[in-house]
Amino acid sequence: MLALLLIIPLALALPKSHESRHSHPKGWRPHTAPSPSHPLPLRIALTQSNLQLGASHLEVISNPDSPEYGHHWTPEKVAEFFAPSTESVSAVIAWLIEGGVEESRLELSKSKGWLSVHNATVQEAERLLSTTYSFYTHVSGASHLACSDYSLPPSVSPHVDFITPTIHYDFQLPPPSKRGLKREKRAKGMPPAAQLGLPDSASLPKMDLGGLFTIFDQLTHCADQITPDCLRAMYGIPPAGIRLSTSKNSLGVLEFAPQAYLPADLDIWFRKFLPWAVGSRPQFAGIDGGNLDPRSVGLQYNGESDLDLEYTMGFVWPLKPVLYQIGDSYLSGSFNNFLDAIDASYCTYLGGDDPTQDSIYPDTDNPDGYQGTNQCGAFQATKVMSVSYYTCVANVLPVTPMLTPSQYMKLGLQGVTLLFSTGDSGVASGYGVCSEDGQYSSTGTRFVPSFPATCPYVTGVGATQLPEGGSVFSKEVAVESKVYSSGGFSDIFALPSYQSKAVQSYYAKYAPPYTAAQYNNSQAVRGFPDISANGLNYVVAASGNFTLGSGTSAATPVVASIFTLINDERLAIGKGPVGFVNPALYANPWMLNDIISGNNPGCGTDGFAAVPGWDPVTGLGTPNYPAMLAYFLLH
């Protein structure tokens, strides 16, 4: 099959630099030269077609004022539209074979986006890429194989996005404040991007350690305890009950091992807040060995999943959410592992998933771990997805922000609403530390944006709270007790057109008092969050007891439930799902409750302030369900 693609003659020309690095990240230094025969897992990301056009198409079909609104694409159309051209595949294969690589060692991914060179060596890679590899060591003792630059023939370079491993320092280190807390799984080399669900992950909600002995039923206590009735009163959410389009509708909740809900916890919560749902369970979709590990018991293992499912099921019942349980009992799984499982056109494990970032299967290090291959396109994407997990851009492989956002764009084209929590540490990283020279530092002063909430094709969810001593009818403020709503500006992603007017207005009226040394103040980059919801003191049944949970990871499933309920009404009258909602929200901010008080401190500063209009603390504000429903039913 590959031979049929060899149709393009190569122009004889000297290689030109494709990527280069002029300095090493802080703490790294060259150490020794590798053996020429040292194995090197060479992976080539081929240039995708039509990415810029894809972004334009997404805005058109996501704008309710457009005649194309809601005309979502099929997975087949998406795969065909973005696949690297035959010309690109042919050019790269021909170059490799001309360079001495046997065709039998080449493997093209199903999406045609990745080309793997099996059994490559350092000597071979150095010859192909006109470079020199070295082992680099970190002050922590970590070692990494990389080069400072590499070159490609002019006839090949336009067809290649990037190649790994090369200049990218994809061996990331835990933040300094956490290195003493490594669990056995990390010591075994668990990839950093696949640490999302570990008990000390910054993604998890802040759970009160003591049990909750009194649960208030009156709405007058919502400033102290958030219950479903509090949220219904605050945002106008309808009661649980008859749904119009349950068979057509869907909501997905992502959980990463070892996080897992306890069935008994759901029933404890249902008996208090939704008694007719006792015994109800989510639809289970186990990805890459995902399971409800009975050995993982405790708030640090069950709190997140219990909270997510209790509140989504509490709002959308009798619709049963799909629980995407990702990773076996040893490897937590990553965002890429999830994307592999829901979209066969993305499935990059044949050359895209990176062993230093993503969980790779079979799990050969653990005999009782998942021994199958990464699941490729095994599950359908739900119409709405709630993701209460995040990482920081400093925590992921530099090439990841190039790839993952395009996949989120493709899901948006298919009508999927993606909601990601922004984090709970204000302008700092999830661990409360900041950045210095691109690395975590306890003395750093640069703000750390979260990911994927900064991606322009997802909806980032921040957190608010009722003011201390306030009632359910009090105007909310940015959350300032126990957690701080993460928000700010991306260091990577350009300002999307749908957000341009809001960000320009923010800078014109409320420009922050910080310099480019602290954040990207170019006024030309993506701001986050987009929307918020209450994130303080949710009543949660976890590990057999009631307690309180807080964070943007509590707000996200509430917002996801609201869009699921809106989809229910739309589907009942023959319309499609709302899909990517950001263009509609920014064009119609009146649908949301503006938050104008509070801030998100960190990095030795007060952070940003909540102000009238969009702000990098609470976004456009909190949901107004009746207004949102009326708008989305009209369009």
Core attributes:
635 residues; alpha+beta; Rossmann fold; 4-stranded antiparallel sheet; globular; Tripeptidyl-peptidase_I; metal-binding; hydrolase; tripeptidyl-peptidase II; protease
Would you kindly provide a written description of the structure presented here, covering whatever features stand out?
Secreted tripeptidyl-peptidase which degrades proteins at acidic pHs and is involved in virulence. It holds the Pfam family Pro-kuma_activ. It is an enzyme of class 3 (hydrolase). It is found in: Secreted, Extracellular space. The active site is at 304 (charge relay system), 308 (charge relay system), 553 (charge relay system). It is a single chain. The chain is an alpha+beta fold. It folds into 2 domains: 2-48 and 83-169, no CATH class; 192-208 and 223-634, Rossmann fold. 24% of the residues lie in helices and 18% in strands. The chain contains 14 helices and 28 strands. Strands 11, 12, 13, 14, 16, 20, 21 and 24 form an 8-stranded mixed beta sheet that branches. The two termini are 47 Å apart. The relative contact order is 0.14.
